[in-house]
Amino acid sequence: MTSKELVKLENIWVHYDNVAILEDVNLSIDQDDFLGIIGPNGGGKTTLLKVILGLVKPSRGEVTVLGSTPERNRKFIGYIAQSSLFDHDFPISVLEVVLMGRYGKVGLIKRFSNEDKNLALKALETVEMLDYKDRQIGRLSGGEQQRVFIARALVAEPKMLLLDEPTTGIDTPMQTEFYELLAELKHAMAIVLVSHDISAVSIYVDKIACLNHQLYYHGSKEVGPEILEATYKCPVQMIAHGVPHRVLKEH
Questions:
Q1: For 250, which DSSP code?
Q2: What is the pTM of this model?
Q3: In sequence order, which ranges of 169-233 are alpha helices (DSSP H)?
Q4: What whole-number distance in Å separates Cα of residue 182 and Cα of residue 101?
């Protein structure tokens, strides 16, 4: 691995019940990357994140995270799952949820120190949710909850943040605010964003990976229609907004 490289996947294969989910995937993620991963449902995007976290073991290939195994170094990775299932009536505050992100540092049975609480408050301030610290988490909107879950990841002081479809169920104005928050956070850590929102990804990320079992592209965010057609297995036509604009061709 190079000095800037946080994650390296080499010739990764993953099988579920003898069905290949990832096929010979090679991918590197550097410390200053804001990488968007796009592709159809069932194409292996979530599985790829779980391989990086060490939650799924490849059938073949090698995974290196911060120079070692994912199991050893996943404590340096913040992870926001596609959906956070919890009892919205459970009486837990925003601050208490964020403090849960310190368990990896202090353990499950130790008390939180003043340092832990200060880090939690700082994380809430970073995501502009400090004023909500005493609110019950279940009383927040979907966008507000996602900000809290990012704060929970940040409080562990990660070197990289993985987000799996983080804007699902969030209204459009909140999505824009959410992406702008990520654009700020990218200056402090690497970010990997799995999303179906190709337009948002193309605006905010620096690099794109197109994944549908195989990795069809990994590079800048200038992805042409031929790459998208290979990834999604259907005709694709790019639309340019503004003036002048292109009209869709028939296909």
A1: P
A2: 0.84
A3: 172-185, 198-204, 225-232
A4: 18
